[in-house]
Amino acid sequence: MIRLPADENVITGHGSQRDCCSVVHRFRTVDGSSRPDLPIDGYLDGELVLSRSFAADPAGDRLLMRADDDTVLADGVDATRIEFRAVDRFGAPRPYVDGDVRLQVDGPVDLIGDHGCDPGRRMIIPTPNATRETPLERGTVRSNHPSGVLTTETEELITMSRLCDPADLLPTDSADATLVGRVHDPAENGPAVVAVRGDQLVDLSHLAPTTSELLDLPDRVDLVRSSEPRKSWPLSDVLAATVDEASDSGAVRLLSPIDLQVIKAAGVTFAKSMIERVIEERAKGDYTRAEAIRTQINDAIGGTIAGLRPGSPEAERVKSILISEGLWSQYLEVGIGPDPEIFTKAPVLSSVGAGASIGVLARSTWNNPEPEVVLAVTSAGGLVGATLGNDVNLRDFEGRSALLLTEAKDNNASCAIGPFIRLFDERFTVEDVRTLVVDLKVTGADDDYTLSEQSSMSEMSRPLEELVDHAIGDHHQYPDGFVLFTGTLFAPTQDRDTAGMGFTHHHGDVVSIGTDRLGMLINRVSTAEDAPDWTFGIRALIANLAGRRLLG
User: Fold this and answer.
1) 50 - beta bridge partners?
2) Which residue of 144, 349, 379, 384 could cross-link 102, Cys pair, CB 3.0 to 4.6 Å?
3) Alpha helices of 353-486 — where are they, by DSSP H?
4) Taking Cα atoms as reference points, which of 488, 481, 529, 523 lies closest to residue 220?
5) Gap between the Cα atoms of 201 and 455, Å rounded
6) How far apart are CA 409 and CA 198, in angstroms?
7) 20-66 per-position pLDDT tens digit
């Protein structure tokens, strides 16, 4: 131990030629004690550039903890490291501490590895579950040391709030994609038409105040790529705010990419899902009868329906056989008959976008997501782009009666679309849509349930153009254009709660629908009653755009 009178001795050490500095060590005693603190002042060219102190007395020592990230994604995979060390009252590190340091965690976090270890060691702290019912929770990490000397009041909060990695919303080839959509701009308290350009999201509302109008422009691709923007935002910031359920209302975030377009849907366009509709009908909404009916139908018709061309002579022969055996159904009629099912899914402006809550009626006990590709169609009937959609469905309602279709399909927040519309161009065409494989994943918040399914567009029973032709033509016009849900291959047969029931949603489920060329649509399941009310309708849109002088 060095013993020197306080402030009376200065030891100057001249650095090497490389350092070109001097360090002055000043030693003094503490309260008359023979144990000195050690202050160190560093000078560069005669100017003080560094001042550090080291305490001799252990009184005031404490444990200091820091996390690499203060936000952990709620995906069951992401993690952060905690670094903890012993420091003196000046914050200078201690070389060692006798005895184990113990870590205690509370809330939705857990530790990987031994909970007792030496200071300085890093611990991994992941989320214990992929999702939760509440959008934001905090996990607390507390340190503890058995000695009576080391103060251990420090704690670290880990916040988990994101539905997914924000970059997952984009197509894998986003650099080559022409992407358009809408955001909520808090600065103008309304929606803005936007396009992705590199790492920026640019506002094109001055060219077209609605995506309905933008898609009708003949030179839309060139305008989206080259027009001078009205304003712009960092793309990464907008994507992060979109999937962060705890972000404040002042953040710019994605909306559904459509506005004035009518929301249409085609049903029963895949053989596998068609059989499930027949089961719903025969079970009359009672899930306890589903498995027995599924077995009966499969035994009777097997795979004879798969591959049938709807409306063909072969389809008519199968129809005659099924009628004779008492197995004909209204769903088989639209599945293999000459006319497809085309219906209005939801009102104009009612769809929600990526990151928003989706709604299931609270009194529904048998329901499911429907992952679909959604076509963007102009007022003239031209196919100009594609996006993703979730046609949220209540199986128990539709199964009881086809006349309950609107109540089964159209509820608050029951239609999700997004995240962007990918315009058809030289790199992405309707031919690419025919080969898309759509992935569905549902992760439970209150159980360990995970469902993963795929829907291949190549297995559709009807061409995309045929569905569009049944929606628009001399028989029906859409002056603001429309979007068309194209149906799903997904058949919710994987049991979750009760054997034979198949799938049904739980409150808090996270539903992701994705494909490489269109990105990912992700939402958390709520009830239609608890999801945010739909308040921004056509009158509000017109008033907002007029107030911003965006209407011609």
Assistant:
1) 42
2) 144
3) 395-400, 405-409, 430-433, 464-471
4) 481
5) 30
6) 37
7) 344 443 444 444 444 567 888 888 888 888 888 888 776 667 777 66
- For 398, list phi and psi in degrees, rounded to 5: -65, -35
The residues facing 181 across adjacent strands are 194
Please report, as a single letter, which amino acid is at residue 307. Answer: G
Contacts of 411 (CB under 8 A, 6+ apart): 359, 360, 361, 392, 394, 528
**8 Å CB contact between 504 and 497:** yes
CATH architecture of structural domain 262-290+340-534:
Alpha-Beta Complex (3.90)
Q: How far is CA 200 from the centre of its chain?
A: 20
At position 270, the amino acid (one-letter code) is: F
d(CA 236, CA 172): 15
User: Rounded to the nearest 10 degrees, how much is the dihedral formed by the CA atoms of 123, 128, 132, 137?
Assistant: -30
Question: Dihedral of the CA atoms 145, 148, 151, 154 (nearest 10)?
Answer: 40
**170-183: per-residue pLDDT in tens?**
999 999 999 999 99
CB 122 within 8 A of CB 83: yes
- Cα 295 to chain centroid distance, Å, stands at 36
CATH classification of 62-160 is 3.60.10.10, yes or no?
A: no
- Distance separating alpha carbons of residues 515 and 470, to the nearest angstrom: 26
Cβ-proximal residues to 74 (8 Å cutoff; 6+ apart), any chain: 127, 130, 131, 132, 160, 161, 162, 163
Inform me whether the pLDDT recorded for 132 exceeds 60.
Answer: no
Token pair belonging to 260: 């004035």
List 65's β-bridge partners, or say none: 84
